[in-house]
Amino acid sequence: MTIHFVNEMEYLHRDILSMCSTVEELIHDAVDGLKHGRSELAEEVSVRDREVDRWDIRIEEECLKILALYHPVANDLRRVAVVMRIAAELERVADLAVSISERSAGIAEHAAFAMPDRLSEMTEEALSMLHDSIDAFVEQNSAAARVICQRDDLVDKLNRELIEEVVAVMKRRPELVEPSLHLFSVIRHVERVADHATNIAEDVVYLVEAAIIRHPRLHR
What we know:
The chain is mainly α and 220 residues long. Helix content is 84%, strand content 0%. α1 (3-35) packs antiparallel against α2 and α1 runs parallel beside α3 (74-108). The longest helix is centred in the middle third of the chain and has 35 residues, at 74-108. It is elongated. The relative contact order is 0.14.
């Protein structure tokens, strides 16, 4: 493939890294606002989400231009396809940040409502998976990507435990049902961040090995 194609792909890789960095910050800010009752962050997160939307559109347009100009095949074609898929996954994670920040207002109205400590652990693990999946993409490291897929089990475990904790609070203190429902949604949103990180890791395996590992039951 021509040097122009290589340069175009390097630009796209930098765009993906910048997009991921912004998305990570959005999730951090959304959860931090939730923990500290800063409901005013919702508007700021929403504004920055539009920045991520612009990244997504620009990357898709660049990928389509590359497909039209260079007609890549085999590994080069997979690279372009994977870049488009990763941008879409990151855009969805940014949307989750908006949803988390919107739940802050409902929880902030209940000063007596305590946030579970393990929510931070779950968030950090989900964001670590997201960051590491992008690293695996840049390094084209399918072994690291497969490890990330396995790490989703920990987030799923924390998800179940936190949901059980929230349900227990609702049973014990009916007056906290409303903020508990908001928190229930937050927990599920964080779990979805890990799912998107897993999707990116699976795309890395596809890029490097030309193997589709989604829906493992279909390959048994």
